[in-house]
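Milestone 3.1: sequence recovery, worked example.
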């Protein structure tokens, strides 16, 4: 069992960073091009990820690893918080799908995405945030019923009761946002 845990830990270090990468990509592309998504961030996918939680369960037959209770996944400047994180993988190597549930919060510097559920699907390369999803950067924000990010298309879609707030970029606004 100890050998399996070590192998699973190595696998998570090598492949778990995809969720952080995807989640932050979601954050950056979900709001207005000029005001929020304009500053591109280079993410090193080879950087390790540290995941802490109250418990971890590995189900080898189901190709599933479950983190429960006060989940915190960190990579460089990015942090994901949730109550649970489900990592489904194919062939024991590639991540198939990752699901974060319960008070999901993704934070990076002045950017934050929140919702009740975030789902990354490798096959179609999308991230879907639901449950009162919202993305904020500085004083700008966008929210709706569902936010979908199409990673390979540099495209995002906010659906249902959409509300976007984009503030003018001047010194007065910048000072207010820093408070």
């Amino acid at each position: 069992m100890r050998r399996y845990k070590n192998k699973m830990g190595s696998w998570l270090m090598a492949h778990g960073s995809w969720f952080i990468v995807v989640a932050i990509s979601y954050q950056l592309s979900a709001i207005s091009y000029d005001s929020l998504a304009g500053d591109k961030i280079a993410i090193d996918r080879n950087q390790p990820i540290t995941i802490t939680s109250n418990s971890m369960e590995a189900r080898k037959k189901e190709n599933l690893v479950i983190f429960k209770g006060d989940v915190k996944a960190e990579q460089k400047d990015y942090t994901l918080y949730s109550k649970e994180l489900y990592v489904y993988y194919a062939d024991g190597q590639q991540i198939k799908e990752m699901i974060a549930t319960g008070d999901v919060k993704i934070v990076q510097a002045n950017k934050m995405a929140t919702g009740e559920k975030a789902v990354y699907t490798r096959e179609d390369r999308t991230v879907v945030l639901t449950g009162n999803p919202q993305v904020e950067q500085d004083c700008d924000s966008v929210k709706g019923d569902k936010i979908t990010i199409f990673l390979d298309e540099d495209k995002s879609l906010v659906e249902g009761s959409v509300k976007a707030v984009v503030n003018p970029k001047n010194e007065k606004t910048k000072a207010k946002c820093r408070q």
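The helical segments are 2-15, 17-29, 171-178. The longest strand covers residues 94-108.
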